Amino acid sequence: MKLKFLGAARQVTGSMYMLSLDNGYNILIDCGMDYEVKKNPVERPNLFPFEPVDIDLVLLTHAHIDHSGNLPALVHQGFSGHIICTPATAELSEYLLFDSANIQFHDYRKNLARAKKGRRDSIAKPLFTEKNVKQCVEQFLTLKLNIPFEVNPSVSIKFLEAGHLLGAASIEITVKENGKTTKVGFSGDLGRSNSKLVRNGEIFHDADYLITESTYGGRKHIVEKSAEDELLNYIQKTCVEFRGRLVIPAFSVGRTQAIVFTINQLKKNGLIPDWLKVFVDSPLAIKSTPVYERHAYLLNQEAHNFMQEHGSLFNFEGIEYLENMSEHDELMNYYDPCIIISAAGMVEGGRIQEHVMNNIENPYSTILIAGFCAEGTLGHRLLLGQSTIRIKNQDKNVYAQIAKTDVYSSHPDHDEVYSYIVRTAENSIKAGKKLKKVFLVHGEEPQLRAMQKSLEELGNVESVLPTMDEVFELHGS
Ligand SMILES: [Zn+2]
């Protein structure tokens, strides 16, 4: 059997790996959009360096676009098999993929309108349409966590809790060929322990090979307080003492729900005043929030206890979810102290840009960045601490407080990934096996190298940093 790295190799986005059995059966694990292709150009005339029709099965770890975003294009280009994922991932992916099709369509229209005559043919067309998403969603087949599923006599799979996002799974693939059995574990994206809402991730029991993310290799999350204490501090200072607005850019799926749940906890504990309004200005958050309550069995004990005592996790007195633009426009003219949560998380596009524009010159406002912001994004530029900033072709003075918190990070830091790998290797030994190789992916090269260095110091786990399109032969035992 061969394992080929088709994405997220020495970079973070574009997760895609192919397992090819000796009998010609091809499994694709994730099919994500590559946001870094401009920075690290790959010599590829097509989106896929293979014929989509040759893929027999797709396994999807979770709904984030850098793992799922090229699925509609794969289907459009001829893949007609099943896409297996958890039920929550299927629902969240559907919303995220429709949203992605919509964004691509509007960006295309905007770029076309801006392009000079004669140059319009050079404008990149959307990678897929809503019609392609509809077709793609029909090919989803759902499988719950921890239920082994025999795909065919040679291949069986099992999903394990990854602890990263609702429905996110690590995938164990067992291949039987040539009289030998090989177990390959794909971590997908992992989470931190004791995250808001989601449970802690599980470890593979007897893996021969591990393909794991190492997004924050070499880095340590600075978390000195609980999410409640951290958020309460900003709410007290900004909304209560200064009577200002707290603007939180947040991804619509995952981060928004974690923040809203924290505010609900603070409200129920009587720690923030009743008069303080909370606005969630994101249509995608409105669609995806009920998925959390529909799949409450995936939530952690803290969330379960809260639901039992108070009912809803995300609805409380004083919260408003804004769907249409007229409600958004009304909020732009709302000047009382409040909390505004809006997408996108890196402040690139979406309604949040307007809220940042509206508050950046207000010394009573705080803009709280609650997640990773890639270089070049408005979120990243805000964190550089400049006194003026250009937003939507306007120069703005930065009078608002700009703050950052790591408490909602949905990826583990160096020590947590290291511990994950060590525990996986220990489990394999307990099962009478050896973890033969660890492939480090989904991280920039310095992050992957830092993890590799720690593993080298440990001595008994061999690690590899695969490059794009590199192929490895895997051997069973
Ligand atoms: Zn993810």
In short:
Helices cover 32% and strands 21% of the residues. The chain has 477 residues and is an alpha/beta fold.
Describe the model.
By secondary structure, this protein is an alpha/beta fold. It has two domains: 2-219 and 410-473, Metallo-beta-lactamase, Chain A; 227-404, Rossmann fold (3-Layer(aba) Sandwich). Helix content is 32%, strand content 21%. It is built from 13 helices and 22 strands. It has helices at 65-68, 71-76, 87-114, 130-138, 227-241, 255-268, 283-294, 301-310, 325-332, 352-359, 378-383, 414-430, 445-458; strands spanning 2-5, 17-20, 26-29, 57-59, 82-85, 140-142, 149-152, 155-161, 169-177, 180-186, 209-213, 245-249, 277-281, 319-322, 338-342, 366-369, 388-391, 394-397, 401-404, 437-441, 463-464, 471-473. A seven-stranded mixed sheet has the order 6-5-4-3-2-1-22. It has a seven-stranded mixed sheet with strand order 7-8-9-10-11-20-21, with helices on one face. It has a six-stranded parallel sheet with strand order 14-13-15-12-16-19, sandwiched between helices. Helix 3 runs antiparallel to helix 4 (130-138), helix 3 (87-114) packs antiparallel against helix 7 and helix 5 crosses helix 6. Zinc ion (ZN) is lined by residues 62, 64, 164-165, 189.
